[in-house]
Amino acid sequence: MPPLRSRAATALCSALLTGCIPGRARPADAEPPPVYTRSDTAALFAPGVISTGDVFASSFTPDGRTVYFTKATSDRSAMQILQSRWSNGAWASPTRAPFSTGTRQMDPHVSPNGKQLYFTAPRQRDATSADPGGDWDTWVVRLAGGDPAQAERLPSLANSSENEMYPSITIDSTIFFGVRKRSTGAASGAVAPGAIAYMHRKVRTTPVLVPLLEIINPSNPYITPDGRVLIVAATAKDGRGRADLFVVRRGGDGRWSIPRNLGREVNTDDVEFCPSLSPDGRYLFFSRVRYDGDRVLGNDIYVVPVESVPVLRDALGQR
Predict the structure, then answer these.
(1) In what order do the strands lie in the sheet with 295-305?
(2) For strand 116-122 and strand 136-142, is the pairing parallel, antiparallel, or unpaired?
(3) β-sheet bridge partners, residue 4
């Protein structure tokens, strides 16, 4: 006769989990949670399905079961936003998002409540960088309570004649974005100066610049939903490579801390960019451009548990 504990466990399994009975379907609400990674170190996210050597910039719906990301040609002349759903224990083959209708759109960011998705596209959706209206702007589409195919460009206070890129928004509708000057005859390969700005989505005020000291050309801001922690891509004297990820905290007095390099757990001698966190805040997603000398090998999305990145874990206050 099996021990009492074993018999009780068997009875509980039979009574509550029909999936424990061979041949009986698993209840819909027993769908396993998404698996982002099984590694304790930075690893490719969904290799061969999502990470295919030509993708970057990911963002998830609040339930963590739908991911949006950018897929691009090697010269970035064409970019589209794809989506994939966690289903039957795996990430489904990506499909084009319904609002991704222009030639170039990138940098999806789902709002914390899941009702809107922000992204980057030219002011004129099919314009090239050299065309009038070809500067990058911030757009928004309603995922709930609206037509998911109808995107709207944010007002002029949030979009200037410069490039606004990589939007990220807090619970109280404060939107952060990177600002980069348009190229005006700069030498080939030169990087235009960059900065990080923020403004309240529903209040008509001029954007405010984030004072980020000791780093150069910050871009790709990800702000946590509570507005307390900012992760950015930038270069610095103590950087590990072409571009690294840094974390900044905002204190109770509103002041921003000195950016801290996320360290070797994330940064390499390649380019790390486009940071974001999973909805539960337990996983860091980022993109990496891999190089062989000066030759680009490709770009993919990576994921690493926050607990494996001490600098980020401390900034987020996780134990």
Answers:
(1) 43-44, 295-305, 283-292, 271-277
(2) antiparallel
(3) none
The total number of residues shown for the chain amounts to: 319
Q: Distance (Å, rounded) from C-alpha 46 to C-alpha 29?
A: 23
pLDDT single digits (tens) 215-253: 999 999 999 999 999 999 999 877 777 899 999 999 999
Of 98, 99, 85, 73, the C-alpha closest to 49 is: 85
How far from chain centre, in Å, is Cα 96?
A: 17
What does DSSP assign to residue 233? E
User: What are the residue ranges spanned by the domains of the chain?
Assistant: 54-182+191-209, 210-319
Token pair for 216:
């150069």
**Contact indicator for 159, 178 with CB cutoff of 8 Å:** no
227 touches 174 (CB < 8 A): yes
User: What pLDDT digit, counting tens, does each position of 247-301 carry?
Assistant: 999 999 999 999 999 999 999 999 999 999 999 999 999 999 999 999 999 999 9
Unique residue bearing structure tokens 């401390």: 314
* 233 contacts 221 by C-beta, under 8 angstroms: no
Of 2.60.40.1220, 2.120.10.30, 3.20.10.10, 3.40.50.740, the CATH number of 54-182+191-209 is 2.120.10.30
pTM: 0.86
Of 93, 65, 97, 61, nearest to 79 (Cα)? 97
- What is residue 120's three-state secondary structure? strand
Contact residues for 76 (Cβ-Cβ < 8 A; gap 6+) = 104
Residue 228: which of 207, 195, 251 has the closest Cα? 251
User: 82: closest CA among 73, 90, 71, 74?
Assistant: 71
Q: What is the DSSP string of 262-303?
A: --TTT--SSEEEEEEE-TTS-EEEEEEEEEETTEEEEEEEEE
